Amino acid sequence: MNIIETKGLTKYYGKSRGIIDLDLSVSEGEIFGFIGPNGAGKSTTIRLLLGLISPSSGTAKVLNMDCGRERTSILAQIGYMPSEAMFYDSLRVKEMIQLSAKLHKKDCSREAALLCDRFMLDKEKKIRELSLGNRKKVGIVCAFQHRPQLYILDEPTSGLDPLMQKEFFSLVEERNKEGAAVFLSSHVLSEIQRHCHSAAIIRDGQLVVHGSVEALSKTSARKVEVHGIQTPPAIDGILDVDCGAESVRFLYQGEMKSLIASLNALPVQDLSISEPDIEEIFMHFYHERSGSNDLI
Hints:
By secondary structure, the protein is of the alpha/beta class. It has helices spanning 42-49, 71-76, 93-103, 109-118, 132-144, 162-177, 189-195, 213-217, 256-264, 278-285, and strands at 2-13, 16-27, 31-35, 57-62, 65-66, 78-81, 150-154, 181-186, 198-203, 206-212, 222-227, 238-243, 247-252, 270-274.
């Protein structure tokens, strides 16, 4: 069963583009990565899923409920972390966490204490005294303390130091093993490749590719680096060329024997052929001359 599903989901802000015809599905029990730079449409999508804004057209369901009509029921059953959390500055950390728990009508004091200890968060400090990283930790506790079945996390690791980032993803994976699904937006591609089961790439408000992280990483294209030449061989299937002083790097999609035959006529000193990582695949989809998902 899909825990998140959108069909033709579109949002315009006046004449400005938000997202266009987004068809997206997230299955129960998976960690799903939503990839794109700032302005691609990630936060607009999340606000639509939460029912915080209304779509221009199309539909969105979360937990098999309509995101507009059943917003209150959805929000009661999920854990949400915005990219920039806004709290009441005059409250102490423990008061803010207690307020969040009351909104879910649950006693989360034990779980909140465990999470505060885990993330080394001082519960007695006032919100106004916190650094960006510690504000992020408050957001983590508020989103995770009631142990929901779905987490929607918008750029959750921005502002966290590397140690806390590692601890955060340990927590995400623990909750996932317990059966919770996670929808995680990020522009940190290594996070997606390391922790997510499936992913989608959004560009200029439109979905350009959607599938398992393993499938995205194992495309029919190959990463090629050739030393001893300054321009790539003149054959079809070469993409995203990067020329150095004495080497050329590119993605190649085609028959390997054709590539080897063309390189055989050139003064090649060294040759490396490997699978592209998800960052290189991502950059392909954002290349100014790329207009299709022809790597998959």
